[in-house]
Specification:
2 copies of one chain form a homodimer. With 159 residues, chain A is mainly alpha-helical. The first copy, chain A, is built from 8 helices and 2 strands, in the order H-H-H-H-H-E-E-H-H-H. In chain A, a hairpin with a 7-residue loop joins strand 1 and strand 2. The longest helix of chain A is centred in the C-terminal third of the chain and has 24 residues. The radius of gyration of chain A is 20 Å and the shape is globular. Chain A binds a DNA duplex (30 and 30 nucleotides) through helix 2 and helix 5.
Amino acid sequence: MDYLKSLQLIGVTARIKRISDKLMHDARRVYDYLDLPIEPNWHLVFLLLKEEKQLSVTEISGALKFSHPAIINIIKKMKASGYVTSTTDPKDSRKQIVQLTEKARKELPNLEAEWDKIKIAVGAIFNDEFLEQLVEVEENMTESDLLDRVIEIKAKRNE
Amino acid sequence: MDYLKSLQLIGVTARIKRISDKLMHDARRVYDYLDLPIEPNWHLVFLLLKEEKQLSVTEISGALKFSHPAIINIIKKMKASGYVTSTTDPKDSRKQIVQLTEKARKELPNLEAEWDKIKIAVGAIFNDEFLEQLVEVEENMTESDLLDRVIEIKAKRNE
DNA sequence: CTTATATTTGTAATCGATTACATAAAATAC
DNA sequence: GTATTTTATGTAATCGATTACAAATATAAG
């Protein structure tokens, strides 16, 4: 018996938040359990830098759609753990060029084996139909977000 | 072009968080735009107390599945705005009995008219199939959460 | 009855991210 | 070539929620 579920559309925001929060929390517990020496968020940075080799903070922030302070914080920690280096771009001294270290590339196969387990677990929770629906939701929100839609609805009522 | 989307299952957690965060943020903007004198979260407490009349902090927390400090905080603000009263239960002096005030009941019809607009906007973002999929995801996570599943997968691999 | 345990409310510390602000460098305008 | 605007990074303050801790009361156990 779930009161939020009974509210249907009214409860959907809170339910999504509930799922999101539990997922983030569980991810941390999984990383602890697997004794991974990294934080869940670093995963995305690893994958991005593995492909792109050299990226600035802003480029990472744009690709992952995290705020730039969030990326700075992640990079700072990854640097302290020896997984990335950051050097000032000689052509543009505002920019920091971030790239994986040798240590990171050496550990990648092990990490990927662990990530693979997590991926299978995630796949058991979210089926393909959900992923398809998620794409639609993202498109709907990009096309016109909640505020835009409320403004439109209010305008129509006042006609 | 969305890097997280291209990662499929690996990016799904971050995408859900992104949707959740934007939704919560947009909800606040909508409440501001509509000049509602309440915060988005209060909505759920209003609806619950409208039906149940009298509830303790723990009962509200259990129904909405928010932590009890979160409910205490909401109730404190709703009280300051004159929408609820809280009195000590004469039969159990640990408990606070929370209920809507006359002011709250008087304003409910207006609030409900505004909530209706928001509900329509939410319905335009999340279709019925998504809601069905969401139920499945919740069931999957309740049945066995991410950590449980990873533990199981690891055990199988080590056989 | 007295002691131990569980429940309820309340407060403090923490957390992971954001927005707002500051600074330096590059690009553009004139 | 100097002044203005934009861009990139970095820091501080904030935010909404959680977990951890504390205190009071009720319940259960002996």
